Amino acid sequence: MTDKYVITIDRLYGSGGRIMGRKLSEELGIPFYDEEILKMASEDSAVSESLFRLNDEKAGTNLFFRAVGGLHTSLEEPSVDDDVASPENLFRFQAKMIRKVAAEKPCIIMGRCADFVLGAVETENLIRLFVYADITTCIRRVMEVDGVDTKEALRRVNRISKQRRDYYKYYTGKDWEDMSNYDLPINTSTLELDPAVRLVKEYLRLRGIDA
What we know:
The protein has one domain: Rossmann fold. The chain has helices at 17-28, 36-45, 49-54, 63-68, 87-104, 114-120, 135-146, 150-172, 193-206, and strands at 6-11, 32-33, 107-110, 126-132, 184-187. It is of the alpha/beta class. The longest helix is centred in the C-terminal third of the chain and has 23 residues, at 150-172. The chain contains nine helices and five strands. A five-stranded parallel beta sheet has the order 2-3-1-4-5, with helices on both faces.
């Protein structure tokens, strides 16, 4: 058994992936990183946090990246020159922070291509989750959490999921919803969030991880 591991979570909007991540963090007693990565990257780069938020989980406009995906150039060390605030360089600062927190101790990292960033450096015991649900479930959860009507919930699910899909493709060159990118896809249409958390904990045990 080992106690060294990192969990990354990609999720469809409305699937409950973020809530699952926080529940897992509490039950496992390990740090949870979501928007905290933006603050850390801002402090490391001396670039305004508002710029990181403006570009958060959004594809850039570089035509080369759009044509072939960022691939390895996404994982280079960030620049401190004139392009310091470009979307691609902001991503590199985030990737740097993701690698840093993953190297320190077990943790959970939400989105931001963390599965790709950490997979590229062969992180030990990397557990890559993808949380999804059918459109009806996603709409219901968004209505409950965001307090919006059906029409607005559907608009948010479609818009934000497309945004994440394009972002992942832009920086990794891979398809976000290709389940071969992940170790454990979880369908929360048929599994409520608490049982889903128990499923992840059992999966860790089966992987020989002392969590």
